[in-house]
Specification:
By secondary structure, the protein is an alpha+beta fold. It is built from six helices and eight strands. The strands form three sheets. Strands 2-1-6 form a three-stranded mixed β-sheet, with no helix packed on it. A three-stranded antiparallel β-sheet has the order 3-4-5. α5 (about 165-170) crosses α6 (about 175-185). The protein is extended, with a radius of gyration of 25 Å.
């Protein structure tokens, strides 16, 4: 049974409106081996080694076909296609009327996948959902860029000498988990202006020496 929770989006426009939507709770991501084990339950007469070979062959064939400009539709699964991007530093805007942007370097951006109607119908028919928590979990939307969040923190550090995890989360509208990860990343970078002192619950963040 699939699990979900309700997620509440913080109102950043101060309109008083509250947006709630369902969000999947993923238990784990299966590896290729685990997927083949599951596939083998449906195809017990086929050796797992054969299934592994077919999977590898599908990946190689799909890559080859996409690289030659094909889209690939697999019945009951969906359609794979390739998306592109520019890989040079030239502007994307046309500068002049007769500018045809003739000399551009293009590369692969990603692989697009559109689910087949058959698979969507089967999912909608077969999937049963279980709600894992009452109420709605609030999703804190980033109101600031990373640079702005650092400036917000430095303002507190310069005022009182340090900033706590709770203060960093509050001033930047982040969850404590997100704030903790971000502070760890910032303070581990010697080029960033914020360092830390203390350990565990006594850890605080300070201005890096020389900054």
């Amino acid at each position: 049974m699939a699990k979900y929770l309700l997620q509440e989006m913080n109102d950043v426009r101060n309109t008083g409106k509250r947006t709630v939507y369902p969000k999947m709770v993923t238990d784990q991501t299966l590896t290729t081996k685990e997927f083949i084990d599951e596939l083998h339950k449906h195809l017990r007469t086929v050796d797992k080694g054969v299934l592994t070979g077919v999977m590898c062959g599908m990946a190689d064939t799909l890559s080859s076909l996409l690289s030659r400009g094909y889209n690939v539709t697999l019945d009951d699964i969906g359609t794979f296609s390739m998306s592109l991007k520019f890989i040079d530093d030239k502007p994307t805007e046309i500068q002049e009327e007769d500018d045809r942007l003739l000399y551009r370097r293009v590369g692969v951006k990603d692989i697009n996948f559109k689910t087949s109607p058959e698979m969507l119908h089967e999912l909608r028919t077969e999937t049963k959902f279980e709600r894992v928590m009452t109420g709605a979990r609030v999703l804190k939307k980033n109101l600031y860029t990373l640079e702005q969040r650092i400036e917000n923190a430095l303002a507190i550090i310069d005022d009182k000498g340090h900033i706590t995890l709770g203060e960093y989360a509050q001033v930047n509208n982040l969850s404590r988990t997100t704030a903790s990860k971000e502070l760890a990343k910032i303070s581990s970078d010697p080029n960033m202006p914020i360092d830390y002192t203390g350990q565990a619950s006594h850890k605080i963040w300070i201005r890096r020496k020389g900054e």
